[in-house]
Specification:
Strand content: 15-25%
Mean pLDDT: 92
CATH superfamily: Spore Coat Polysaccharide Biosynthesis Protein SpsA, Chain A
Largest sheet: 8 strands, mixed
CATH architecture: Alpha-Beta Complex
CATH topology: Spore Coat Polysaccharide Biosynthesis Protein SpsA, Chain A
Structural class: alpha/beta
């Protein structure tokens, strides 16, 4: 299974790009790559239309658009993949290879077109497995102004937090988007 790493976010809440943001003796990008590379056949960056390619990674680009939503990166990844893939944002600097392997295996074995973990009460749509069969749903949703990834399918297999916490220590699915969350995450790095 391939992993598509979403790298084109605006990072408005953080106040600066997360790609090179220092964290735990490394950077957000390097930590996520170090976890993802052993877990997947390939890791491919998905960048905004006018963004820079990521050094050392194959990079594909979203089509030009004015809206800010991860929907475009997921859509572009599904256009590129041949079947199932894993979508991962760089917002998860505590993610581990073991967690990614587990989620990828669950996605590979599932009949649901989306396999999404729940963490701290929220579905983690940008650390999840997606199937290419979802592609026909993107254009109509966008035309209707619906940018939420949760509405792509009624069939979502949810990997519950209790199951993940029973298997994995720490806060591997902590989504870090603000300076306050960065400070909290640093305690686990």
């Amino acid at each position: 299974m391939d992993c598509y790493l979403l790298v084109g976010g605006a990072s408005r809440r953080m106040g600066r790009s997360k790609l090179g943001l220092p964290f735990g003796g490394s950077t957000f990008l390097r930590r996520v790559l170090d976890a993802a590379e052993p877990a997947f056949e390939r890791v491919i960056a998905v960048q905004r239309a006018h963004g820079a390619p990521i050094d050392g990674l194959p990079t594909i680009f979203e089509p030009p658009h004015e809206l800010q939503a991860p929907l475009f990166g997921v859509w572009r990844a599904l256009e590129d993949t041949s079947g199932r893939c894993f979508l991962l944002a760089i917002d998860y600097p505590l993610i581990t290879t073991d967690v990614l392997r587990y989620l990828a295996a669950r996605s590979s074995q599932s009949r649901a077109p989306m396999v999404v973990p729940r963490w701290k009460g929220k579905l983690q749509m940008l650390c999840a497995g997606y199937d290419r069969s979802l592609l026909p749903r993107f254009a109509p949703r966008l035309a209707a102004g619906e940018l939420n990834l949760r509405g792509l399918s009624e069939q979502i297999e949810i990997v519950e937090e209790a199951e993940l916490r029973a298997r994995f220590a720490g806060e591997p699915l902590m989504n870090v988007n603000t300076p306050e969350e960065l400070q909290e995450a640093a305690a686990y790095a």
